[in-house]
Every structure is written in structure tokens, then in C-alpha cells.
Amino acid sequence: xxxxxxxALKIVHVKSAAEEAKEILRQERDGKQRGWKCRFPAINAGMxxxxxxxxxxxxASSSGGGKSFLLNMIEEDFLNIELNGESIYEPYILHxxxxxxxxxxxxxxxxxxxxxxYAYLRSSEIxxxxxxxxxxxxxxxxxxxxxxxxxxxxxxxxxxxxxNINQIRDTIKYFVxxxxxxxxxxxxxxxxKLIVSFDHAxxxxxxxxxxxxxxxxxxxxxxxxxxxxxxxxTIVLNQLNGNIEQPVRKDNPNNHYPLKTDxxxxxxxxxxxxxxxxxxxxxxxxxxxxxxxxxxxxGLVHGNGxxxxxxxxxxxxxxAELNKGRFRPLTEGEKLNMNITRSIQK
Length: 346
Fold this sequence. Notes:
CATH architecture of the domain at 51-278: 3-Layer(aba) Sandwich
Shape: globular
Low-confidence stretches: 342-346
CATH class of the domain at 51-278: Alpha Beta
CATH superfamily of the domain at 51-278: P-loop containing nucleotide triphosphate hydrolases
Number of strands: 13
Strand content: 15-25%
Helix content: 25-40%
Largest sheet: 9 strands, mixed
Number of helices: 12
């Protein structure tokens, strides 16, 4: 029998892994930023300071619950020089936005910057007296165009068409080669890194998968492989399965909080992910007082970090200001009014 010249799978000696671990320890101790922060301290803490290459994160919510909204803000933060200018990596974002066109993603992004609703930006927000629609003023239009011009220079790319796993694999491989991911950027002197996001997992097309569960299982295997092979930062959006809306859950405050079993196809994707965050807006399913502490739900966004590979799990709380295109942290007055005490602010 002919002996193999190369192993079927890559073998790494412990010495090589140890040398890489030493470099990580030195850089982290010296304050080198090996990733990207977002504007939400509780999420950063769960990630151990910031989001890092080589990790997979799932953000799940019900339809309209805010997962895409949250991802949009997080990706904006990754490219924010003021927030992440000290990172040792040069971020590229490849966003598979199967649900929305690129121009809509950008408009949603600048709505938060301008503190205007998406409808207002499109001159489609109904006037309070119902006499027509509010139009952008000349000054607001100029401001929006300036923001769009600035965004045009960002390293942010969209894939607007849904595809199967093989097409996704080929697209990412092309991008890694085309933009020299994991190589030193000639301008910044930093190492190029790729952040890949999927909005959302259930919109991927099937190949030979017999059903949705098989598709999610194959996709989960693929993202593990791709994330490790090219040292990606991978973010997957996913749906909740509707259990949280059942009367038996809604009528019992002890069962209000979202759980692992509320995630669609939870076993496959959950185990593939290093970090899992569920975003829930209880107001949307008719809950006025939320959880055993009877938290008032008007505008409330409950983020539940149910799994962090290395950090501490826990809740964070935001306010949805859709008229200003953003989620924001609660003020002290809102925490008091909503009955959110220090012990559950995590």
C-alpha cells in the first residue's frame, strides 16, 4: 500500500500552537486590540472585551424583533475609526443580505446617524395631521448625501442574491483571495480580516438537503469549517420558532424570557456557534409587564446572551427608538420607571 506524502487533515504540533498562544498573551497584556468593539458594553463583556476573528455568533429574534437592526449597528461600529482605530486588524465586511437590498441597508444605517426614521428618510412618513407625508428638507437631503458619500469609502460589501452552500463557499473564497484577507494591508499596515454576516440562515437555498432542518445542519457544518480555515468573524441571524408567543408562555411571567429551545433549528446552529444572543421585544407579542419582576415593556428590547464561549451569560436592556433609527441604552430614569433594578441589569 502506497504511503501518504501529506496527511488528509492538517496536523499542528503543540509547539506551533504554544507559540501562537504566547503572542496572544503578550499582545493582550500590552493592550493590543485583537478585534472590534461595538457600542453595547454588555455584548463586549460577553465576548471578553470585543468581537474576535475565529468565532461564530448567532443573533436570533422573532420576525421584526430587531436582529437585523442590531446587526446593522454592530457592523457600523466595526468600521468606526473612533471606536476601533486601535485594532491591529483591518476589517472587511461581507454581508449576505438575503432579505434586503444594499441601498435599503444603507438608508437604515444613516437613519440612526440622522436620528430619523427609515420612512422619514424616504419622504414617506405620514404627517401628524394626516394631510400627507413629511418630505426631507434641503438641509436634511444634503446631510444624508454627505453620509452616503462617506459610507462609499467603507470596506463593506453586499451579496443581495440568495444562494446554496456551495455558492456561498465559492463567493467567500473569491473574496478572501481578491482582497488578500489574512495578509498585511499595504496602506494601513494592519492584517486584513473578514467579517461575514448572513441575514438570515433560513433564506439559504437547498442543494440536496431534504428539508429545512437538514439545510441548517449542513450550513452549521460549513460555517465551522470556513470560520476556522480563513479565521473569519462570522455572524448568523436566525429566527425564533414561535414557541415564545404561545399563551402558556405569555401567561406565565416565569416563562417570558427567550431560551435556547425558542431558536429555529436550535441544536444544529446553537452547537456550531461560540456565542448566541436572542433579541426580544415583548411589547410586540402583547406582553405589558415582562418577567417575574414585571418590567414595563413599552419600547423595551431585551437582549439575552444565552451562550458566550468564554464570557459570562446574562441580559442587557435597550430602548427601541425606531423614529430615530436606533436602539439605545436605558437612562437611569427609564430603569427606575420600568422596574429594572441593578440586580437584573447585567
